[in-house]
Amino acid sequence: MSQPARPPRILVVEDEPLSAHHIAQQLQESGYQTAGTASSATQAIALADELKPDLVLMDIQLDGPSDGIVAAQTIRTLYELPVVFMSANAADEVLERAKLTEPFGYILKPFTGRELHITLAMALYKHQAESRIRTSARQLKALSRHVLEVQELERRRVAMELHDELGQSLTAIKINLQLGARLKGQVLADLNQECIHIVEDALLQVRRLATTLRPSMLDDLGLAPALSWIAEQCAARGGFAVNFHHIRAQARLAPDIETACFRIVQEALTNITRYAQASRVEISLRREDEAVVLSVQDDGIGFDIETMRQRAMLGGSLGVLGMQERASLIGGQLTIQSVPGKGSTVQLSCPWRAPAELL
Fold first, then answer.
1. Which of 30, 211, 216, 218 could form a disulfide with 117 if both were Cys (CB 3.0 to 4.6 A apart)?
2. d(CA 44, CA 40)
3. What is the pTM for the complete model shown?
């Protein structure tokens, strides 16, 4: 059974004790929880840091040298908490100062419990929406940076492969041809044979390089053979057994779906090889009604799913972000489940779409 939602916690900043008590009663009657009460700007800032409330309900006129507007600016800057002002003062100069702190509401005293509830509900909803936007922006920035880094690393690797391996092979062929122009007989025949071997090795290097960038079987044979190939490759490197289960389909999937599925499995298998310490991996590809369901399950050490989500939200788990982005681009949903000590499961569900359905 799911746990009931926790009521939003409100920090009340009010220097009149009777008013603070009355506001706390109104909050309780509206389904909110009073996280704490402060009577000065300094105390409000300290409690915002200590209590981490969901919202700060801030009186503008406070005890001490600083008013609520100064406190709100500090709280917004340091802790990104939403602030709703409450005041009996509606003077234009006060409103102008208050607006500079980007508050989530301004309610005039005296107010009813219903007015307070509506103001807080709208403020909390707006803050949640803005938080999601900020998180998405951080993730997008981290993912964009990662894409550029991976692109440069891939270019550097390809350049080294071409220079160190293919370049040396072509140089050897050039030297042999120059020697052959001056030689005859058996020596020339031996040089020609050596050139043939060098060319064969160079062709193998080119094929290996091309396969690393994108396996041709994904385009030529389809998703299932490509997944079987990448599973065998990773199993050989990672030292685990792998089983790939799939139901043969009469029609191929759209190219973007095949590519996304392949890259998601590739990333999942890479993570298993690096971190999971697994002995067995199960890969399943099937069709359920009008959906493609792809899953990768291992029996490794697992991980804490909440920690992983927090890292992903902050842009720390770029592999997870990449998989989620690929799933989103094909209209799919990616779910990750794991329990420490009991392995993990990555599952993709997306609409079944054949090449003919592309617009």
1. 30
2. 6
3. 0.52
